[in-house]
Write a structure and sequence with these properties.
This protein is of the alpha+beta class and about 240 residues long. It has helices at about 20-35, 35-55, 70-75, 145-155, 180-185; strands spanning about 1-10, 55-65, 80-85, 100-105, 110-115, 125-130, 135-140, 165-170, 190, 210-215, 220-225, 235-244. It has five helices and twelve strands. Helix 1 (about 20-35) crosses helix 2 (about 35-55) and helix 2 (about 35-55) packs parallel to helix 3 (about 70-75).
Length: about 240
């Protein structure tokens, strides 16, 4: 088994707000006054934090393709794939949509498949083959509970080959981990997060929005929230596990 460190992070477009009302207001003001300077400063600080954690794999949601954060991450990781988060939904036709992305960064090259959900506005789904026996799926799920349940079920149904799976991303489950109980039983997953792994809002975390679901054969060593990086309304979270 290969021990692997996976980081997921909703970077909130690198505006630099911490999820508080004041944070949103002043974050937007600073960005509007000098967008390029703000983007570069926040991107550099985020990349420095990720570099200190030294993950093998990094998934980023709410990533702007033209942000300095992309350049910073490309300096840290030898392989990357950036895809529009709306996938094949009608939102892809809007003028701003092409800049709004999900990003995958890694220290080695992996086979990457860009899939689409059947439901929702944000339809892009990363399907990464980590080994012959394990795939990892990453996305930014719908805010609507019924839609995101269908999205998770679609991921679970992809496991026709019986390989090990990791599902991760911003799940938007404001009601807590109990929302995943029925899906956990249906697909025989375990939730790597605990009730203490709150990631939103970053200044006073109350919700577990950023989640790792794993097949039972994946050995989870640690899940850890990076509470020091309050540069987005989400906190980054890391999974350390052994990949069969």
């Amino acid at each position: 088994m290969n021990k692997t460190k996976i980081l997921i992070f909703n970077c909130a477009h690198c505006r630099g707000y911490n999820g508080s009302i004041a944070g949103y207001i002043f974050g937007w003001i600073r960005y509007c006054i000098s967008p390029k300077r703000r983007d570069k400063a926040v991107s550099k600080a985020m990349a420095d934090c990720i570099n200190r954690e030294n993950p093998d794999i990094c998934f980023i949601s709410e990533l702007l393709a033209k942000s300095s954060f992309v350049d910073e991450l490309r300096e840290l990781f030898s392989f990357n794939c950036i895809s529009m988060k709306y996938g094949d939904s009608w939102f892809k036709h809007l003028p701003f949509s092409g800049n709004h992305c999900n990003g995958f960064f890694a220290n080695e090259q992996f086979p990457v498949l860009n899939r689409n959900f059947k439901y929702g506005i944000k339809r892009h789904l990363f399907d990464i083959e980590l080994s012959n026996n394990t795939s990892i799926f990453f996305s930014h799920l719908a805010v609507n509970r019924s839609t995101r349940t269908k999205q998770i079920e679609q991921i679970g149904d992809l496991n026709s080959k019986g390989v090990n799976m990791i599902m991760c991303g911003d799940f938007n489950i404001y009601g807590g981990l109990k929302e995943l109980d029925s899906l956990k039983k249906k697909y025989d997953f375990k939730i790597a997060n605990t009730d203490s792994d709150k990631t939103f809002p970053s200044h006073k975390p109350r919700h577990i929005l950023d989640v790792f679901l794993c097949s039972k054969d994946i050995d989870v060593h640690d899940v850890r929230v990076i509470s020091s990086m309050q540069l987005s309304d989400h906190l980054p979270i890391i999974l350390e596990c052994s990949i069969p």
